[in-house]
Protein 1
Amino acid sequence: MNKWQLPFLAVFCFVSESIAVDVWPKGDWYIHYFFVPRFFLIFLVLTAMHFGGTRAMGYGFIFGFLYDCVYTELLGVYAFAYTLLAYLAGKATKWLQPNWLVSFLLSLLAIALLDSYVYGIQLLIGRTDWPFAVFWERRLWPTLLLNTAFLLIGLPVLERWLAKIRRLEQGE
Amino acid sequence: MPQFFGNKRLVFLLVSIVILVMLIGFSLRSREQLTWPEQFVKDAVGFVQLLFGKPAQLVAGFLENVNDLRHTYEENELLKARLEEYAALETEVEELRQENGRLRALLDKKESLRDFVPIQATVIGRNPDRWRETIIVNKGAQHGVKKDMAVITPAGLVGKVQHASQFTSTVQLLSALDQNNRISAYVQGKENVFGLIEGYDEKRRELLLGEIPIDAKVEKKQKVLTSGLGGVFPKGLPIGEVTEIKPGQYGLTKIVYVKPFANLYDIDDVIIVKRTIDAALQEEEEAK
């Protein structure tokens, strides 16, 4: 039973991104600003901090690939980014004191990196012609804002849940 | 500076980047169909989405309803006024329909480009990163959905099927239309003017209808419908209304701005449109 808690949390975070966009009120704000939920990435960074980079990399690769297949139909982009970010988060935890502030900032940094990277790819393959300033104004800061709000509410819950899962696993 | 990557890992990273580039190249080719592993993954995730999404949608729907209640009185007044117009219009439509049927019978012409079979579908997910506005709906190839079919809401055209898996399919919204996915349309008037929906002006939130001859007569407020020429769209699906006419790039064509009837963003339930004439043709071919 305990074995399934972490995968369940992963699936939940993954699916909730799509649902969040679906139920988001579709007003002028939705059309002009791109609030991109990155709940799974937050989960990934926290997993890397609690369970080590290797395990997070596994999750990153599998769910990144799912993301590519199901949503963007551009294979490899998220699989690569999630795996790399999980690796870096795992490395970073080794010489950072793990506390809530660190996980908060690390998550935001990962989101900023991921979004800039995806923007770079879109620019490279010609699917967008936004200059960086527009990307910053319409995409990056709304995304960071939304995820900051999510972190303020969800981080304590996620942290506690992950800590509990880790304790249970160590107890076995 | 602490070392992030060892030598072995650096090589591994480089190899992954090469694979990444190859994969992107593979997915950028215009593909007729997704590979079966992709289809399988889509269907599986679609199922999970349905599981989690239904309760979320119910709650969101409830909140929306509460919000709607506040405007009920004004809306009700407006609708009452419209209802009388509607009754008159309906009798007229019925007469015209009967007449059309009689004339068709006279001509012995059974199928028309206009006829279609609606496939009702519900939105179960959206592309969260929204670099391409797509939605995922809960009907797929098993229900008769095919690539490029038109997707409408009761108000009008909203998009086309990008890829169909077995039990789910991805719909590309009109707001994400690119050069490779043009839609043949016409402006309804005394003489119909044909053109192609070429793109979406994000600032004005309007569609661009191009390839219209410079001497064609187009006026504001005229309606734009699908033409049913080319592709698998039926004829006569409403798209939008003309708002502005501008000369095109080289002065040989006109560009017409079209305000879509349907809300291209707020979409919960859609109808996938399957043209009957194709099914009839297929049957004929199979009979041979």
Protein 2
Amino acid sequence: MGNAIPHVRSAVGKIRGGVHVQHHKNTADQEIVRLPAPDKVVIPMQMNIGAPCAPIVNVGDTVSIGQVIGDTTAFVSTPVHASISGTVTAVGDITLANGVSSRAVTIESDGEMRLFEGLEPPKADTREELIAAVRASGLVGLGGAGFPSHVKLGFKPGTVDTLIVNAAECEPYITVDNRECIENSWDVLSGIQILKEILQIPRVVIAIEKNKPKAITILSSIASQIEKTKGEISVMQLRSVYPQGAEKVMIYSATGRRVPAGKLPSDVGCLVMNVASVAFIARYIKSGKPLVSRSLTVDGSAICTPQNVRVPIGMIIGDIIEHCGGFKVTPHKIITGGPMMGLAVISTDIPVMKQNNAILAFSKEDGLKKETDCINCGRCASACPMNLQASVIARLAKTGDAQALIRAGANVCMECGSCAFSCPAGRPLVQNMRLAKSIIREAAKSNG
Amino acid sequence: MVDNKLLTASASPHVRTRDTTRIIMLDVLIALTPSLIASVILFGLRSLAVTAVSIASCVLFEYLSRKAMRRANTIGDLSAAVTGMILAFNLPSTIPFWMVVFGAAIAIIVVKQMFGGIGQNFVNPALLARIVLMVSFPKAMLASWATPFAWRSDTPDAVTSATPLAILKTGEGTLPALLNMCFAKAGCLGEVCAAALLLGGVYLMIRRVISPIIPFCYIGTVGMCMLLYGFAQKENAFLFTAYELLSGGLMLGAFFMATDYATSPISSRGKVIFAVGCGLLTCLIRLFGNMNEGVSFSILLMNILVPHIERLTVPRPFGVEKEKKPRKDKKEVQPS
């Protein structure tokens, strides 16, 4: 039916490989529900790729929503804001889902959800002002990676000709980007206009997988209403294949350009932003309210009532699950993020971070596959969107030969998990890739 | 609240395909079944008995050798059963049972388990077993083919020493009709019904167990070469090619043996090189060699080359440019 909608373009490039994972978009029609204020939040100081922040509040301080509680002078980092109003009760170390230890600020709620008084719409008329404003907003890529957005926007003027708004949402279960497109479609479009005008990007492509027809219809009808863009903003529907939303895959699908290994999207004239990040920029420029809450899909076979929720950053995931009716069976595995690239957590006592887009809990049946010997079927190689031979790299990793691993392209791997997903022998191919990369890193280090 | 100690922490991805080694092997067994049925119709229950003995002894040897090596039992992955079935398909239905058991020992103990088990064998176990049997027992292996349907006639033990390939080669005797070539010819018990093999091959391709590259390139290469040879040497090149394609173990080899995962390349380019090599060698052996049949030896020889083919056909990762070799005449002057 997608082809019947006017103003919708089809993909330019067709990526090789990828896998067809069951979509499980159970919550696609569930409106995002704002959860009541939690009693406490634990806000980590490391919620982005790059440098962590240092807490600038002390135990006993009174804080309110949007107040900066952690900052750093490092460029590749973003400030951290209080997400509820209340009193700081602890500043200490916690262990994040990925096992990394981070400073964190615990705030006990006063139940008022007061906004910080100093918040006002930022001045963002020039490129520099916009970048500074985006940094101050605390925005990181909301699609999952958590890369500070202002760093992306700081490309050399004139080098980027295409803004790709990533609404592919190729991970199973997750539907918050889909909901963002449907519920906040005007925010998405005005965010696009802000970026397009200030950064002078001539062309914008909103890329959505075909399995979200509602989002495609709404965004394309709005895009066509914006007269003055003269078709410069278009919606593109992509094949529903994992990992369609991965940055390099997305750029190739949308423009047919290949990002060279080790290079950035801006090297091929592209800027890729997650759709929720774009909508957030529009809201921030209008209101000045920094990134203090985000939307999450809570789903999985162990969750009582799967739904989409909006929660303050730092809310404990156990509390969020309670709000979704708790567990209907004993959970066997809990994941932050999607099932293909998310992290399995060992406790429900960890906070939601800026880049988390889902909490999934699974019962015993969805357990691990038994690992057996590699039968050399080559399915890992046919599944790889980066054209790597995972089984070969896995064997090479055992030899520890860094040069051979570089030649085999181990560094090109983005750990999308397509190889391990398709392996009939249940081999731990992603771990082997990580091992391969660490061997390369170590070798580079010892060579100075 | 949840007991955190019961949570599983594992690396992504947290979902996996439902396919397992066992399901893949089961698919191969299913794909081989039409040919087995055809064989039973042609040669009687003796076919079934040979197949049963072969599968049973392969599974037993797999079990025993894993036990002896103190490694995990792997008969559940059904790969030994597949080897057993393919080995049986490569034997004449008249073969004594003890030879079948001997062949199974070669395939499983020597070729497969001594090199590390599934995925590690450097040649196809069933093929090497067939070749060992062929050189050890030429009479039983190469000169006593049951005549199709003889088991239902007055002379149930009628044997012929001439397969269509032998007739094609020597020109002595009369070739069966082309229709019989498709459904019922003399030969090893699994290779006699080309239609059934094709059916199985198509099933494997639909189930994506095998890629069409190897069978297509292998059969295609043999077809092209035979056609060229036919134009030069034979009266009716097309008929000659048709007979060559339907003769011997080509269909069995192209769909079920050359596609063996462990002994064929994983890259598409590698698969093409491998299959074309198999095709060329088959033609050379059939047309100019001493033997009637070339499929076994050609696949075996190409099996040995697989590691080298793999090394030469590693695909270029996404975004990695082809390395430009510096040309000698345009040497760049290094700024000093």
